[in-house]
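Protein modeling request. Please complete all fields; requests missing the sequence field cannot be processed.
Requester role: graduate student
Desired output: 3D structure, token encoding
Chains: 1
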Amino acid sequence: MNPLSPVVLLLAITLASCPPNTPNHPRPTITIGAERTSANGPPTVRAHIVPNQFPVTEVMLEFGRRASLEHDVHLLYNSGPTSYRMPPILTHTLPTTQPFDVTFQFASHPSNPFREGEVIDYQFKVTHETTSSGPLFWWSQPRKTLIITARVPGSVPPIPTGEAGVNLIPSLAPSALTRPLSSEVTTSRGSMFAVDSFFCGNLPLDTVTTVPVPPLTWGVRGVNIESVNAPFDVQLIDNTNPSSPVTLATLAVSSFPSNTPLVRQDNYNGRASSIRVISNPSVEINGAPATVQGCFTEPGTSQPGLDPGALLIRVDPGTSVQEGNEGDNELSF
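Delivered output (333 residues):
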């Protein structure tokens, strides 16, 4: 889905999930802080949250992208693992009844980067657990609008630090993966698998083409990095079989560079640098001619080095660094 396409999203919100602010259902206080707006900042939003009586269990960001203020507002996306995969940077482990700060850094796909003048509309969604009604959630009000500004030359400013200790968080740059997206399709030209449509962008139809694979950039980012006092590892893991995970690469971090809360590297040994694909192939399936819609691997070929079906970034598996939040050290994708 193109984040700039005018798609209408209907949000069904039940009164039970967002009750009035009463003594029995007190609202947490959500105060939105300063923003970072430069296209390569990356764009960043933050909030200070004060729980009221009940522990806060989750904070998410809901947002939309539009080309300009003249376009309609549609909050189509969120920070969760099934959408934009933007884990929160927290200054306190959740659940908590203590005040804390939360920061979200926007990540865009290489094929659809943030552009100067683009508009991001966003709101924070805070969930807390009650003793009688279960989980309840609220949104920050009013909805905020961030306008992307020009790229900033030189180094990116650091993530603002909070009152808590070190927090190490997996980092993943949005990128197209070569993993199969379907089961094997048997055709008259051989077997093939569906892959990300990114690889067939602007390709001629029914023509096998070799296209480059963008790098898989992964690593770690951190809060209060000046307090990191021990080296640690970051692992990229093939988690296709969770009972027998395979470590594909290890990034050894001795320390964070000065004022740079981010350490990353590209790819892993054996990963394919190109892939042979075909768009809308014309084949025979079970003896009947068919044009299969989509982007597929070249029929009848075995291409080594395609990405596994399940990957995992694991930060500090040896717990070398004492963190304020040990619960966000893994990211599955």
